[in-house]
């Protein structure tokens, strides 16, 4: 970056002054704004890396790669847990939370997911919805019981892989 000066501290001073100007303008508009490199704190979005990391581009990029790899490992572990015993979805959302510490897209997805889960929980607590769900569950259990009864009536207690041509 060419600043027109050979003074080593002048770039940092210019950067600090520009940051202060942005913060003053943000206070006038009611929200904070910043660069796309993680200083975007509008609506609480943006990088949560320490300031000394954000101040150095290469270090911040390395930080983001590390956060991405750590989040990816957690998400992959959650995906593996989906068919296996373990809290698969909880771990996947934990990986999203790791990504959300650094990436705006993950913060937006996590906010949307939290909102949808909260809405679903509120709908599930509605007495009318609970009665409907209980009725549908009872109907489903009756249908399964009838099908099992028909199978036992027809074949006895023999497993399907042991049934021969009859």
Write down the Rg.
28 Å
The overall average pLDDT, rounded, is 76
- By DSSP (H or I, 4+ residues per run), the number of helices equals 6
Secondary structure: helix percent: 55-70%
Major β-sheet profile: none
| Percent of residues in β-strands | under 5%
Distance between the termini: 85 Å
Structural class: mainly alpha
**Uncertain parts:** 1-15, 28-41
User: Which overall shape is indicated by the principal axes computed on the Cα atoms?
Assistant: elongated
Overview of the molecule:
With 166 residues, the chain is mainly alpha-helical. 67% of the residues lie in helices and 0% in strands.
Brief digest:
The protein has 166 residues and is mostly helical. Helix content is 67%, strand content 0%. Helix 3 runs antiparallel to helix 4.
